[in-house]
Design goal:
By secondary structure, the protein is mainly α. The chain folds into 2 domains: 1-56; 57-125. Helices cover 78% and strands 0% of the residues. It has 4 helices and no strands. Helix 3 (58-90) packs antiparallel against helix 4. It is elongated.
Amino acid sequence: MQKETSKSIIFLAIIGVLFIVSVIWIFQQGQALNKQLAAGISFQEYEKEGNGGSQVPIKLAEQAKKMILASCLSSAYSNFESLWNEECEKQGLEEKCDLPKWVADELNSKHQELEDECNKKYPIE
């Protein structure tokens, strides 16, 4: 009984260590990808160079690119929403109010420009 408990503890410890090492490795790969993207190096160049000569799993890299794009688009929307609410406040109205068409069109146009910038900066194939 005591041997089985010891074996179970050792087994769980090994699994725990492997899990922690895997999480650290994934985190480091994501950090390396972010540095490459921030430096303006293309995704294809990153795949060729790898990190220390090792290849990053393509799905992980693609997922990171999608997350960066989603973050950019989310920021664009947050900016749009803030500007919309500021216009409402200027007109003495509550947030998410109905704005005059010309103001709404201008804000929608700016939002579209920001989304286009995100899609150009972080294209998904």
